[in-house]
Structures are given as C-alpha cells and as structure tokens.
Amino acid sequence: MSSRLLRYVDWTAPVPAVEREVLQALPQRPEDLPPVLFVPGLGHGAWAFAEHWLAHTASRGFAAYSVSPRPEGSLRAYVHDVVQVAASLPRQAVLVGHGAGALLVSHALTRYPARAAVLAAPVPPGWASLGAALRANPFGTLPALFGAAPRLSRRQLFGADLVEAEAEAYRERIVRAPARVYRQVLFAKPAAEPVGAPPTLVVGSPDDRVVPRAALDREAVRFGGAPLLFPGMGHDLMLDTNWQEPIDAILDWLGKVLSA
Length: 260
Hints:
By secondary structure, the chain is an alpha/beta fold. The protein has a single domain (8-259), classed as 3-Layer(aba) Sandwich (Rossmann fold). The chain is 39% helix and 11% strand. The chain has helices at residues 8-12, 47-50, 53-59, 75-88, 100-108, 130-136, 138-145, 154-157, 164-173, 179-186, 213-222, 244-259, and strands at residues 22-25, 36-39, 64-67, 94-98, 116-120, 200-204, 228-229. A seven-stranded mixed sheet has the order 1-3-2-4-5-6-7, sandwiched between helices.
C-alpha cells in the first residue's frame, strides 16, 4: 500500500476525532454528477461558501458541501478532516479549496483520489505571498512574520464594488485560527503529486492583494495549465460582488472535464 495513503504518523499519533461542521445544498433533481466539497481558508468557515456558492452549485445539478476547520487544530488535522469528509460522501468528490484551503486540498489530494480539484486564490506555502501582503497591508501582515495571525484588510479581501456594510459584515465573521497553524502554513512544504493525477484548475484574481499573480501562474504550471483570472475581484472570490463569475467558470470547466 502506498505510503501516501497510509502514513506511519497516522498510526502512532492519530488525529483526535471531532464533530465536524459540514453544510450542504442538494439539487432539486439529482443528476449523474460528482459531489463538490468546498474547503475554506484560515479564519473562514463553511458559511463562506453557504452565502452564494453552495446553492448556486446545487442549482447546476451538483450536490454541494462545505466543511469548517476544527476550532483547535493543526495543518495535519485540517487535511485529515478534508480527507475524511470527502471519503464519507456517496461518490468520488471534486475538491475545491480557497486560500489556505487550497493548500489543504493540495495535501488531501496526496491521500484522496478526487474526481477533480480546483485551487481558488491558492495561498502558496512558505514566504511566497508575504511580499504582496506586506505591500497591501503592512501592519496587518507583520504579525505573520512572527507566526501570529495576520489581520486582512477590506482591500485584500474584496473588490472596490462590494458594498461597505456587506464587506464589514463578512470581516466580522472571520475568526483567527490558532497561531501555530499560521506558522505551519508559513513553513509548509509543497504537496507531493496527487493520487490519480486528477484534472486541476487554478482560479484567482490578478488584483488579489494576498496571493500575487506570479504565485497563481506557478501553481497553474504545476498542473500543466494557466490560471483562470477574474480582474477586479479581491481574495474572497466566493463573497465578492461578482461571485457568480468564478463559480460558473469552475462548473463549466467541471462539465468539460467530466464529459471528456
């Protein structure tokens, strides 16, 4: 059995069991399509996808789910939860990770044979995204240099068109993940090759002030393509004013790769 699927540390120090928050939206007329599991980044929860993307995905015929990170955990525990939730779904799932959730999905793919994967505004491991974040929000980003939780600004998260009251309401729902998780992301190594080589799409915005355009290009090249870009949007694609554009593009792409 592959060491990717069965790791020594999982036997010697298993991840503690928790009750996971999983939200869902199911299509009115189920179609012969794989379920889609959305994975949020740090500070966000399943609610971030329940605002728009879950129902819209279900309206396109896909059963849609989103999982919240456990309140007290680690990068390894978060990846474990993604794998476990995906494995619990009735069919081989599509994994969609946003921000640091894309890093979780990248590592989950080394253990779970996904039908396909989407990395949305993927925060690269290590120091690659710190430069752009420091330029856009120096005081909010500086804590990350010392392994603490950064404080993302409105300009980093959303485009200029999002109504201010709505933007602030979303920001108030963002919580701080444990500081050790930010340190683990900062020093994380790139994930190994995915099991089964699932088709993988990278989406993002050239105006993202958290993930630089060059990082989107590098991540897309890993999977033999180019990123799908949505100018004018901020980091939180699923909450921004034009949230429908990226999710429709993702689902259109899924329709093509699933029928290939």
